Amino acid sequence: MAKKLTQPTRELVFGDLWEFDPAPESADPKLKKRYDLFINGSFVAPHSGKYFSTINPANETKIADIALADTQDVDSACAAAQRAFVSTWGRMPGKERGKYLYRIARLLQDRAREFAVAETMDGGKPIKESRDFDVPMAAAHFFYHAGWADKLEFLAPGRQIAPHGVVGQVIPWNFPLLMLAWKIAPAIAAGNCVVLKPAETTSITALKFGEICQEAGLPNGVVNIVSGAGETGAAVINHPLTTKVAFTGSTDVGKIIMRSLAGTEKKMTLELGGKAANIVFDDASLDQAVEGIVNGIFFNQGHVCCAGSRLLVQESVAEQVLAKLKRRIAVLRVGDPMDKNTDLGAINSREQLTKITELVKTGVAEGAEMHQSACRLPTKGFYFKPTLFSGVSMSHRIAREEIFGPVLSILTFRTLEEAVEKANNTAFGLSAGVWTDKGSRILKMSTLLKAGVVWANTYNKFDPASPFGGYKESGFGREGGKQGLLDYLKLI
Ligand code: NAP
Ligand code: MG
To answer: Which of 174, 250, 312, 490 could make an S-S bridge to 279, C-beta 3.0–4.6 Å?
Structure first.
């Protein structure tokens, strides 16, 4: 870790004289200028001949043209998936299917640096996160589900199980490759074939995943990737051949999907938004809690469905925690996502930056007190300073709506009951965090909190074996573990 003495006259990022040297990642992302659709094992031009641009949000430069799939392309992809299901994949013994998943996992590991750089360029997340979290976790999901492929009968003892057939999947832009892995690995391990639509701003790693499928020798049509906009997603979800759909994205689009599928026999899982409470009791190790709070809200610029975006602190330690947090955000490095020292990279898109900026303005207008790090932001690209709001009340928009950015709303509580009441007073129910020295309190809180995942004295911990998902307006169905896999099978 090189340290350099900066000129005392320069405006300093850290408020002291020490700064890291830049350490840009140098692996080649092997990008193409143009990405076609991945249908039936080949890259094919879109039927309409239309492409859209994807940019690097860190500097607003164009990276590549991405094929825009229309309903005819979705039709071809679904037909290819159906053929593959009937002719090969649906009949293949699980033991054989598993070998392909292992191969995919190993190929992802082989090309990990390349994928990490591509992910960071297309989406803006810090390279240390794509390199150390997104790509290894994506590989881990394929490894985990490869192990299940020949043991599916143990998921539902005494019951007959069968894959659904063609599965339609639509994913968001915050963890593009990882969300793809969460969706595709269990689906194909269970014997389904898939048609997946990545998010418009982050299609590159999904289309590069097509190359991995080719390298792995996956039978044609088992995985199909159709890039495009919301209409492409709707075409995948509503296609007559898709018998099960899996969607991760906003609650608003989740509601549209539920309405459009009402009355059909399609199985559906929805992973939607969140507004998680991260609850700090006065007996918690405060320094440890502060690290967890920072990870909970600033990981991936706060573009995390389970982000700990509402901090509930016990009143007796609230001032102390706020002071520690202010000191901590002052040393977060914001800037070039390709620099290995960067803590917060670029906001994914101009639209998302506008949304964050507007919600932050309402926080100020409604009377909460804003504290921002004094860091300087790059002049090009989309960036937002790490932001804390104290004096937030439950009625404020910043306490109720998902901001999906690096903005923490801080509320206080006096008793455990008040903490639970405030934590559960939300339309969402995806995740929560509890910080306390008492094991009994952790157990009590985890039963009282209405959230799919409750972390205790840690935050944002994931494992392919651990089911993830929400309830209320955070959706239904699970991803990961036995429960996630069961959603890709029907019991007969
Ligand atoms: P979004 O607008 O709902 O988009 C998600 C995906 O759906 C994108 O691929 C989008 O395409 C597509 N889409 C848009 N309209 C559609 C329609 N009518 N029918 C079918 N597909 C449609 O969400 P986002 O802004 O990309 O992602 C952020 C949201 O995802 C947040 O609310 C976050 O909490 C949630 N999220 C949840 C989880 C979880 O596991 N619970 C995980 C990650 C993110 P375009 O890209 O072209 O718009
Ligand atoms: Mg992009």
So the answer is: 312
